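Tutorial, part two.
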Amino acid sequence: MLQLTALLLLSLSLNLHTCRAVPSELPGLSTEPPGQLSLTDPLQDEEPGLAAGGRDSCGQCEPELCPETRGCRAGLVRDSCGCCKECGNLEGQACDPGNRSVFYGLCGTGLRCQADPRPAEGDGGEGGGEDEEEEVCVCQQQDPVCGSDGTTYMNLCQFREAAFSRPELKTKGKGPCKTVPVIKVPPQSQVNGTGSSLVFLCEVFAFPMALVEWRKEGRDIILPGDDPHISVQSRGGPLKFELSSWLQIEGAEPEDSGTYRCIARNNLGSVSASAVLGVLGAEELSSYLANSVSEMKQLMDATDYDQDFY
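Running the prediction step on this input gives:
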């Protein structure tokens, strides 16, 4: 009998010790200090951003309460809640990929969000940068369009932007407008010293493509002719349907002074632009520069800097 009583007391003692050792395993109990977030806090299981104002914070959609949108040149898109309409982003603007507006917004009509096709500034083409490529809105249809105003729009999205403020503007068809050449960048007059290297630039837009030639007034030949110290180079660009042409003079001499003309022509007509070159000896160049500095100083002195600006 004494042995049975001892066994019962030992069993009861073991049960009480076990309960004290693992109280946190009992349902409804926690050992977290007051005020601290439990590891099983339900907010921890939510998608990041929703608890801080994402879709769950949008509330019920009531279209009649949406703000009025005006001046959307790229059309309308859904906002971050997918309820109201807002202005779509234009070509070249940063954008959010996918079909949900998160930070930058969605691309407008006829545009898609993709890596910026333009080369980054300072990009040497090797190794790349550590930063991710920025995604921008790019027009899905890159073919040029001829407008009823005679202007060539490089893609349909640029045409839509122009037509937004001019509803009467229509398309005359796909492809650029046929036009007489237009000199976008004419050659610039310049003065330099004997023995210097000089370059004239002429940029031309035309469709059909233009042929560019250089001439010097007083000489009935197309440059460079047989002159070894004069060269002419041309290439397409910088934009579509443009042509860039350079006239270069190495080791210029005073007899190279004169008027040089850039002439662009296609089967619709021709156009030209001219520039004057002055090649001076050392003394003449020094005198010319001194006179230029004096004229600039007189111009600055004639300007009234004593006025008060607010």
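The helical segments are 2-21, 156-165, 282-302. In part three we will examine how such features are distributed along the chain.
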